[in-house]
Amino acid sequence: MKKQLLLLILLSLANCIKAQLLIDKFPAKFSLYARELPFQFALVEISGGYANATSADSIFLKKIRNGELVYKKYLHAKPIVNDYRFQYTDSLMAELAHTSYELWLGEEELLLKVDSVCAGDVYLFNGQSNAEAAAHGESCKSMLHPFIRTYGKASEKGFEKRWYVAGGDGNRDTDGHIGQLGIAFATQIIEELQMPICILNGAVGGKPLSYFMPDKENRFSVNTNYGRLLQRVTEVDMTDKIRAIIWYQGEQDAALNTDASEYVNLMQDLYENWQTDYNGIEHLYMYQIRNGCKLDIRNIGNIQQAQYNFAKQHSNITLLSSNLAKQSQDGCHFTFHEGYVKLSKQLLSAITYQQYFQDATQEFRSISLKQIEKVNPHEIRIYFTSSGQYEVDSLSKDDFYINQNMEHPSEIKVLPDGLQCYFLNPIPDEYTLSYCGHSGEIEPCITNQYGNGLLCFYNLGDTILVEKQSALEESLTSVNECNIFTAGNKLVVENNKQVEVDIEFTLYDVSGIIHQHEKGIVNSGRNEYRLKSNSGSYYILDIMIKDANYKVHKILKVMR
């Protein structure tokens, strides 16, 4: 009897060994899965098995959404050598819902349970202290949201391999920190789109641009800022899922008086590395640094102009003014409500239009310089890239100066497409003009009817600034005096006739899924149609133009 009992115990132990569960892939608490663009769902992989098994037990997966069972699914295990392996891929909608996954052995034993899982979009924040965005006198607790997620932290001391509901009042050494700017942006975009957001912030305060460059011999080196962030992104399998990078950096380079051309070259190098390692990135949003931090205004202006020069070389880089955000008492960082929240609203306007194809209720771009011209010995005219209703505080004249004698205008008048600056003394023949803003309060300020501020410029004489056209811009064809080409994410049809023509076009991807279909009338002159495509993907553009003689011209174009 004792021998039989011992045999039963040994068999029971053997079965326990057989039932040893191995998990390869399974969601983690608070994890966010990046959605599969352009679709509204993410793919959640679940896989595992049994070690040294001779038969498979009944393993069930339960998916629970906001407390209600979505499904219960048997995970069929297939024999591989001495193991049994199971694999399943679930579709998780990008919505404001908490999903739990439970793994059961039969009907009785709960093996594993993870809750608060969601799907959404992913953004990277990086740069100096205004990207780290610690609290400076005001808390961001009122804008915290359970569907803002992050993984790890930017600390040089390392990070736990964990997911968090994000916070913003701490610093890079705080678990789950994404900064007040990140919190403000994520909360606003969640409210706008009803979709969870993940932000991975790699910012480190007080560092020059050179600090953020990769180690070319080991891109994943944890001794570099670049490597630490890349490692975090790679660990959560998101290197090809980053929607955009948000960048705020440059004050330290102003303090070091970094040469403008060196700054541009470093930014170009960093940008190319980002495109290599985050190959799904669609856009870069840069904040132009604000005058402050008790730095020499000439050094500040030098970096402001370098940022302007770099951004204007690329069609998928948007430069945002920081002049309409209030700085904190230190004159270097920003308050929360009048500072980081205002900065995030500019970012939100740009992203919802450029990446989510929402109709722009207002122009989101900062006011940009087109031309500077001395029209007489006492007057300089400044032209902007677009006409508008501009408002200029009278004291804004003190933010402009001639570099040769540091003279400010005695008066500024508003033009439909720019400004007139009057000077008491004769303007030097070989003059240069600068607009570097000021520190502290928002006022005095220069805005358009949409509340956007003027981008700063430094040490420019008579000049015409021409923005670089999109790298995607290329002529498609000419049809009956209609020039047809793509410019960035737009289809442009220039009708050189005085009569209207019909157009119909379809945009579909290489798998045949239609993303856009439109019909319309091409008026005389330039006509633009926004294309709902994602950077980095291949599309086929099928265009049909019907001319005045009702002849149909068909064009097929593969574009990226």
The span between the termini is 77 Å
Principal-axes geometry comes out as globular
- C-alpha Rg, in Å? 28 Å
**Poorly predicted ranges:** 1-18, 467-476
Question: Top keywords for this entry?
Answer:
560 residues, alpha+beta, eleven-stranded mixed beta sheet, five-stranded antiparallel beta sheet, 8 helices, 33 strands, disordered N terminus
Describe the structure.
The chain has 560 residues and is an alpha+beta fold. The longest helix has 19 residues, at 336-354. The radius of gyration is 28 Å and the shape is globular. Mean pLDDT is 87; it is low at 1-18 and 467-476.
Give a quick summary of the entry.
With 560 residues, the chain is α+β, with helices and mostly antiparallel strands.
Topology of this protein?
Layout: H1 2-18, E1 21-25, E2 32-34, E3 41-50, E4 59-65, E5 68-74, E6 78-80, E7 83-93, E8 99-105, E9 109-127, H2 129-132, E10 148-151, E11 163-165, H3 179-193, E12 197-201, H4 225-235, E13 242-248, H5 251-255, H6 260-277, E14 283-287, H7 297-311, E15 317-320, H8 336-354, E16 369-376, E17 379-384, E18 391-392, E19 400-402, E20 411-415, E21 418-422, E22 433-435, E23 446-447, E24 457-460, E25 463-464, E26 474-479, E27 482-487, E28 490-495, E29 501-509, E30 514-522, E31 525-530, E32 539-546, E33 552-559
Helix pairs in contact: 3-8, 6-7
